[in-house]
Amino acid sequence: MKKDYPRKLALVEQLRILVEGTGRTSKSLAAQIHISASSMSKLLSGSRLPPRPEIEQLVRVCHVTDEVRAQLLRLHTAALAEAHPSLADLLEKADAYEEMALEQLRLQVRLEALTTQQHERRVAYDVLRVEHEATSRALNDALAQVRARQAEFDAAGARAAALLEAEQEARRADREELRRLRERMRRMEDLRQEADELQERVQQQDDEICFLRQELSQGAEELHAVRADRDQARCETVQLREYLIGLQWELAAAERGQARRHDEEGLVRQTVDHILDRWAQPVSEDESLSTHRADAFGWTASATGPDGEDWVVSEVETGDLAAPATPGFGPGTAASTAPAWSSRIRWRPVAVSALWSVLVSAVGAGAWALITLLPPPPDWTVPVGTTMVAGPTATRRTVYAGGTNGTVYALNAATGHTRWTSPTHLIPHTALAADDDSVFVSSQDGNVSALDAATGQPRWSTPLGPVTGPVTANGLVFAADHNGHIQALNATTGRPRWSAPVDKDGVGAGPVVSHGMVIAVGQHGRVHAFNAATGRRTWSATAAAPVRNELTTAGNRIFLSSQDGRVYALDLATGRIRWNSHTGPAHLTADKAYVYACTTSGKAVVSALEADTGHQGWRHTVSQHATDTAIAVTGDILYAAADGEIDVLYAPTGESGWGPDLPAPPKNNQHVSMVPVDGTLYVNTAHSVRAINMGNDPFPAAVHGYGAAGQ
Question: So what's the pLDDT on residue 276?
């Protein structure tokens, strides 16, 4: 078995590096050192240990230094010793002898160099001595000439001294004149500097005047807008006054209707007493065809009908009427025996039918008696020819939404009638911002535009590059551009007010406006707060992970959802992180007591976290297999949407009320968004905008005591 020797391999590796460093082929080197190409190949492959003469010739051909040559020879000796251990001592002595010979060679070369240098110095010394003798003779001759000329110079010096004195006097006069001229130049320079300073002051004053003119122009425009708002407010006041008058008329009509309902209740009581007196017959104690029971509200009569159904007739303060009976549901389930009816009564089946017919006729088919137990119907649904992907955003009179075709739809908030449409090429899944005068959108051509709220006509358009959805507050519009800056625009004119950097890689969440500050988060989790009026940075903070596009505020807290599934709470005034809690990637909404996180996909769970501590208050499961979710809160009502259903929850406790069903979303777009305004929930579904009147009591379960708490 062939044995590998490390020192031999090291020698071969060094020889290979040496050959490669020459840039020549092994064949040409083999010819130059008088060996065959195959021997050279074996030498470089390590199949044989090269003899020392070949190494010497290779070193000489490659022109290496003495140190490299000595290293290669030492490696060769070590390889020989490794291959022939018995010759190790002799090889070490040979190596030492080789080192001594090499050192002697170096010393010999150095000695020859020093000898040559000494000979050159001796020749140079002889040359310098000859030159010195010649120079000495020339110097003596020159000294004689100098002495002769010294006498001439002394005479000339006396004459020059007199001339020099006269020249110095003239120079003193010139210096005095030059001093006076320099003094004048310094004065002129001072005057020039004063003139430049005055020019700069004048320029600054001109700039200030231009700025004040611009401010005055903007103030005039804002004043015009305020006056227009005032005029519109006056018109709305007149409309509200007329509306209040109408409400007074409706109140009077309602009072008259209540009086009629009281008369109808009396008629019901009289009719029931009449039928009971006519059709009831006493029975024995063992017969249990019917019972009469009274509860806390009044009385309840129950009987078995001809088809085996239980019939229940209830008299309560609100006039509720229900039949047939539902086990475990309604006032009749908590009844107790009435003192006035101590005996059992046999009711004939025909009597029960007659009683039911009379009661239905008396109360107008009984429909009004069930109204308080059923959810109110939706106010309106407006189908559109595109998938809704922006909004909804609602004001007092109008609901705005956007579709995938880039069109903004303005709908009457009360009736759903289309006020106008505008093809703005808006960016999908962005927010729409609106006030009483304008609707603000981000378009795909990189502009932030304002549309007239009454007509939909463009009012202004400002190019910012690709931007996120805008928000508006205090007469300004805020949006994030593609350079990672927050841009503030005048809401009336669209003119830029200020710009502030957030992150060079883009804005990850925001902007959101709260308490006079604009909040935005960069792509790497850096949170920034800016003064909304001036754009001056108030504070910056860093979250532990990059942030999803989920950012909301409530009270003195900022809440954001990170990509690692955690919810962070920051102090609004300082940016200090107060707490964080793991919920999974979630949509957020908040009030002063809780922040509500609804997971975005998979098992959709709503978690209520205390705003001050992050402790979990309650949890509620919305869906087991959700593809997208939405969440919104207003007052004590929380709405959570998933898979075409909306759960209505009591925000402080998580108890469930009734919730409306939505059309099943299409598979290619299951995005649902919603916004509650004044008791009405506006929802963007697959191909429609829907308004749902939630009524005055969306929690009949909680009110009547049979609601299920959040799971």
Answer: 58
